[in-house]
Design brief:
globular, single chain, 6 strands, disordered C terminus, TIR_dom, Rossmann fold, 202 residues, 4-stranded parallel β-sheet
């Protein structure tokens, strides 16, 4: 088994963590996201992922710790990802526990897949909201889509952190799948691009 890569960063001042949940078979898309996430270090946002080609028998406490410390999890959705026993039996439960504690869940549709038959994802807004997988976009559209995600991530994390530290704010927000979201005018004025929010319901 290869050693676990907890992060590509050497920046010890980074505070907010994004965990990337993915299939090793989709490594090329992981690397695309990492190229963008490197830029967010300016905002003191770091990322972590499991670097090893692990199996369910290789589940590590280190991976559990990565998920437990994350303020956001990006799930790279493909059939390879959804069919993984390790993802289904280990990562999904750990992510769901953390989500109930306030972590932001952000599923990204990489390839056309059967995400909608999984209740957990079927009740969550999948990105891109258009439903077009990143794999099926031309290069320019894909770059613009990922760039928009990265521009809004600091706003989402900052807003979610504010709610977690100020429970009284919940009188002006609502919860979907354990995640806090603003509504009405507060939502539109405070949260960048509301259409990109995962899990928004009217």
């Amino acid at each position: 088994m290869q050693p676990i890569q907890t992060t590509e960063s050497t920046d010890q001042t980074a505070k907010d963590i994004i965990y990337i949940s993915y299939s090793p078979k989709d490594r090329s898309y992981l690397e695309i996201f990492i190229d963008y996430l490197m830029i967010l270090k300016i905002k003191h946002i770091d990322y972590r992922f499991d670097h090893s080609n692990r199996t369910i028998d290789d589940w590590s406490d280190d991976v559990q710790q990565m998920i437990s410390s994350a303020q956001m999890t990006i799930c790279l959705l493909t059939n390879q990802y959804l069919s993984s026993a390790l993802i289904q039996e280990k990562e999904f439960p750990a992510i769901q526990v953390r989500q109930k504690q306030g972590m932001v869940l952000f599923p990204v549709l990489i390839k056309d897949c059967l995400w909608h038959i999984i209740p957990w994802f079927d009740n969550t807004q999948i990105y891109p909201k258009s439903g077009v997988p990143l794999q099926e976009m031309d290069d320019l559209s894909r770059e613009k889509t990922i760039s928009q995600i990265m521009q809004d991530i600091p706003v989402w994390i900052k807003t979610n952190n504010h709610v977690q530290m100020n429970p009284s704010v919940e009188s002006s927000i609502y919860k979907t799948n354990g995640i806090n979201y603003a509504n009405g005018i507060y939502y539109k004025e405070k949260i960048g691009n509301p259409d990109l929010f995962s899990g928004r319901k009217k």
